[in-house]
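Design review, sub-item: ligand-bound model
Attendees: FS, YL, KQ
YL presented the inputs for the zinc ion complex:
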Amino acid sequence: MLPRSKPGLHGVHQHKSAIPSPKRDEAAPRKWRRNKLAIAQSKHLRQSKHLCELCGLRLAEELHHIVPLNVAMHLAADPSNHQAVCKECHAQAHKH
Ligand SMILES: [Zn+2]
Ligand SMILES: [Zn+2]
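KQ shared the predicted structure:
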């Protein structure tokens, strides 16, 4: 005598393959975003004629984000959020 404790077992074993996999979509834009960021950085440093935007004396060697990226990651590649600064001014900007 077999006990039939689980009726309709075959009925609930249907796997639907229509679920989109988010993993594949996430990998691509991350690469793309890094490239865009690099382009925006070099462009901005070129436009500033390599002079620090804060002191105007030293060479701008680094790119500072006016709005920190941990606050607004979407502004990473936004030129209006970029500031070409020298190493010293950049260090000062991050002291606060
Ligand atoms: Zn400076
Ligand atoms: Zn910075």
